[in-house]
Amino acid sequence: MGVLGYGLMSASTFVLINAKGWSDPIGWAVGLLATLVTGVYFPITLLPGPLFAAAQLLPHTYGIDAARRLLLPAETGLTLPVLPLHAALPLLSPVQVDLLALTLGAVVLPLLGAALFAAGVAKARTDGGLSRWT
Fold this sequence. Notes:
The chain is mainly α and 134 residues long. It has helices at 4-16, 25-36, 49-57, 59-71, 84-88, 94-127. It has one domain (4-123).
């Protein structure tokens, strides 16, 4: 649910900027960033500034962080990196903060995606952009 909004945004580019096939910029960027900067291969705290900021905007980061924290027992002595959002909400556990971020993303991103998709449909109605596919 956390990435549904990105899917709607990606679908809106079909009409809004005439992106077809593999030229969809939102799908391309989210796919690339989800692989490289969300903590799959290495901690996001090692990333340079702009990539670190991008990682914090993707719900994948918080899902991976929560899964890692839940699957690694505390007895191992491993210390997982603290994300800025964890430090901003010290009264909650890091897993609770991750779940809160995922919930917020699951609410906000689909609303933004739906707004862009509605703008795309409105544009298609005015200029007849979808008539070639019917």
